[in-house]
Amino acid sequence: MNQEFAGKVAVVTGSSGIGLGAALKLAELGARVHLCGNSEEHNAAARDRTAGKSISVEAVDVSNDGEVERLASRIRAEGPEVHVLVNAAAIQPYGTVETTSPDDWDRTMGVNLRSYYLMSHFLYPMMKGRPGGASIIHFASVQGHSNQRNVMAYATSKGAIHALTRAMAVDCARDGVRVNSISPGSIRTPMLEFSARSLMSPGGSLEETIERFGAGHPVGRVGTIDEVAELVAFLASPRSGFCTGSDFAIDGGLRAQLGVQ
Known about the structure:
The protein is an alpha/beta fold and about 260 residues long. The chain is about 45% helix and about 15% strand. The protein has helices spanning about 15-30, 40-50, 65-80, 100-125, 150-170, 190-200, 205-215, 225-235, and strands spanning about 10-15, 30-35, 55-60, 85, 135-140, 175-185, 245-250. The protein starts with 8 loop residues before the first strand and ends in an 11-residue tail after the last strand.
């Protein structure tokens, strides 16, 4: 069995969807994983999925600096090193600049952007100078490059993650820490299913709506969490040792095509 992360410690935010998938993949490859989320429902389901694996599910509001600092202290008490950080926590409210409330704006920026800074800031002392280096992976989105209507706050946060990734990569390289982002297209996650339910046409079904999402991608389908987790494992490993400051699309060709036929 491939155990390329044996003896390594990984921290992942977002205890459902892509975050959970990334944690399961890293643990399968030998890592000790701390999986962080603040939804009791998602955390409970994650504990069921990860039972017997080297994953601890931590109840943490990753947008709160006090809670993140306490998490970092708990991890430090177990050992002085963190080798992989995957920032995957995200929410996607709908709204334009007119209809998005200040509270929704602040909450989106807190979860989707501030948490990425906080996790990186408080874990960084345990990541820099590690033999063989360390890797930080931020989850952005195709909607950080171009976007649909009515997702103003979400798209803004994802565009900012691209800039955060570049800035951190330049600063952190001297400490042996690589920083990259991943921009998924439509991936079959609880968030995608929520979006599909909200956009179902009258008389339509969830599966029909997701098939319609997939038809918008050149490959003709939506992606899977397992496919994204494989990319996470590559970017987390020394196999991607010359990759930093880049955004990696996993979007079934979505951004490669023009919106007109």
